[in-house]
Task: structure prediction
Amino acid sequence: MDTNELNVPGYEIPPEVQGQVAITTLDRIYNWGRRASVWPMMFGLACCAIEMICTAASRFDLARFGMEIMRPSPRQSDLMIVSGTVTKKMVPIIVRLYNQMPEPKYVLAMGACASGGGPFKEGYNVVSGIDKFIPVDVYVPGCPPTPQALLNGLMKIQEKITGEHWRNSRWYQKGRDLAEIPIPILGPDLIDPRKVEEYHRRLAESEA
Ligand code: SF4
Result:
């Protein structure tokens, strides 16, 4: 659905009263409130986190976007910025934190590592992108992305919120599927519980 279509109230306002009358929609007010108070979770993984910290500091100033309150708890956050290299050891913790965030929630993959493994993609201990485990809304390229690039990504999150409609938001749907993502298990290698059948099939194929 066109974003603008959601935000047009559909009333003709005579030109002579346009300065005195304001017509809005429930979606517009609801999304305006949400997009101007996105609270990112305060956690960082590697070098990209330094750029994220710079973005929050006075020179770039996340407060201009209503995002200055970085929360130390996932239960008070609605934006996860995955800023840095995602190691196999860290994935279970990231998925657990994601599960603990209340809906509506968003994920921004910051930098080459979080988006696809980056320079360590071939490493034995690194996963090739956090989107293999949790849904990502916005990817910010770069190694590391500049604070300006992160700000641009955050504005894309705001655009996405602006285009949402409370009637078809998945967290308001009856019978919605908001099940938690199974937490990966770290053993000799990382095991994704969602892929156990695939692992068995591949094992059977290799033994055949
Ligand atoms: S993308 Fe580059 S700067 Fe960011 S965590 Fe990976 S190696 Fe570090």
The first helix runs from residue 3 to 7. The mean pLDDT is 88. The pocket of iron/sulfur cluster is lined by residues 46-48, 84-85, 111-113, 118-119, 143-144 (CB under 6 Å). The chain is about 35% helix and 10% strand.
